[in-house]
Write the structure tokens for this entry.
Amino acid sequence: MHSIASLQDYHDQYKKSIDQPEAFWSEIANEFTWRKKWDKVLAWDFNNADVKWFINGKLNITENCLDRHLATRANQTAIIWEPNNPAHEAKHITYKQLFEEVNRTANMLKANGVKKGDRVCIYLPMIPELAYVILACARIGAVHSVVFAGFSAKSVSDRVNDAGCKIVITSDGSYRGDKTINLKGIIDTALESCPDVSRVIVKEYIGKGAAIKEGRDVLWDDEIQKASAQCDAEEMDAEDMLFILYTSGSTGRPKGMVHTCGGYMVYTNYTFRTTFQYQEGQVYWCTADIGWITGHSYILYGPLSAGATTVMFEGVPSWPDWGRFWQAIERHKVNIFYTAPTAIRSLQQAPPEFVKRHDLSSLKVLGSVGEPINEEAWHWYDENIGKGKCPIIDTWWQTETGGFMIAPIANVTKLKPALATLPLPGVQPAVMNESGLEIQGNNIEGRLAIKFPWPSMARTIYGDHQRFKDTYFSTFPGKYFTGDGCKRDDEGYYRITGRVDDIIIVSGHNLGTAEIESAIDEHTAVCETAVVGFPHDIKGQGIYAFVICYDKPREEEKLRSEIKEKVSKIIGPIAKPDKIQFVSGLPKTRSGKIMRRILRKVAEGDTSNLGDTTTLLDPNVVDEIKAGAL
Ligand code: WTA
């Protein structure tokens, strides 16, 4: 098996991946089960945003995640499911059990009319059925589109309609700490505007007697009983769609990123094993929700294809108390722990006893993902959780990249606090200046682009290849543009500095400012809105909205809570603005463009130097905005 044993090894492999990318990746791809090997490793054209890997290769990813492990690890735990309530028992699902559950679920989907190529919307909490149904889709060649179960009805219906899903898999509800959320109610509302959905499969999880719409809804528990535990895997082309996952855009609606079978499998497996240096028998825990790419690639596909034991956590870090993560690490003797800076920052604020009362000695490697990790959080994580002996693997990547791009290799790459360090083999970053030229050398800063394809990159935006091209391949023609800014230090190490577009990252979740603005504008009192991010101690970035109302609001607090409610309803609670400032105008240029640079400064509380404001239509609004800053 391909591995990276030393720094020299990393450099050698990196060089090979650049000089002979096809040879490099075909060696790694050869370690998997293929029904038929590829004819050609790679064909690509970044000008047309066209990329294909392992051309004419045939496979099924579930044969690699499940079947091939049966001979050697049937009774090994594949998934440890840790429930919301620590007083309840965790569930250990072996590879054999997982295989059977997935097969059964696949047959259940088939019996409910799902065929190869159909899109299946999945709106479930972090329960084992979520893993079963994702893999079941992959087994029969259906395309899963998982929607994070914290999104609103409106977000669900937009995604269902965009992907043309005819079936939705959900549950009666979910637990989140001491709260219960009625997921089925959200689905019922969502489906009022999804005329093409003819079937809903409902897992009764929190109770019995879910509201059932006759003819459309069936119960998971009834259906699964009729299904057999043997379902032959569908033969998929390497470039057939595996899933769609939506991510926010800097303008317009969320984008349905399309990932395909072959390259995604090879890359998520390779990066999981090498970056974390996963060793046979270790217990690995990624705290993300499977509704995000991190959960897709690094709770399910990467670890399972590697035969790992992966923890799936239903709960939240703060309930019943701030020791929840540490308790679960102790309970399951977790060796590799992978979480987000926002979680680290909130845990850091809790009294230290919550950490101290648990035995964390099983930990070997720590990981971070979702946003830049600040140095303070990095050191706290290192000292208190890793006890100074666990490398922190800061993984920079995106929904679009499918897998890790820039990250240290555990115990190989020398670390620097808060730096994502070096590109993984196969990844060719380019730092670009404002005029679109690649900046050479070190000690530089610019925009991060990637100049060569890697196997798990998204292939398109579902139903809109032009938007894919425009969003990612037009800023720097011939290169993939990430939307992030970065610095490259004197040793060639990368520090990601954050988004340079109108996407903000709130508690590790990508949100488009345009999306939030249009949700706020739905309030009848609101005339126009501009949203920017501002530094937030826990969330990384908070949401600051500048709102113009038709009439000067009389009860500002009441209106603020109505606006928050509106956003929560239209997008989901994660998109609620932290601060809402009512203004009478926005700083616009003569051509009508909002100068967000100024608003960002105000939101940051730094109004000492707002830069050039002479091009503004009405420079006076700036004084008013400054005076009313929150
Ligand atoms: C940011 C999550 C700095 C970045 C996997 C990226 C990071 C966006 C890091 C993608 C990191 C993610 N350091 N920034 N380690 N990881 N980001 O699509 O701005 O939810 O473009 O994918 O998160 O977020 P997404």
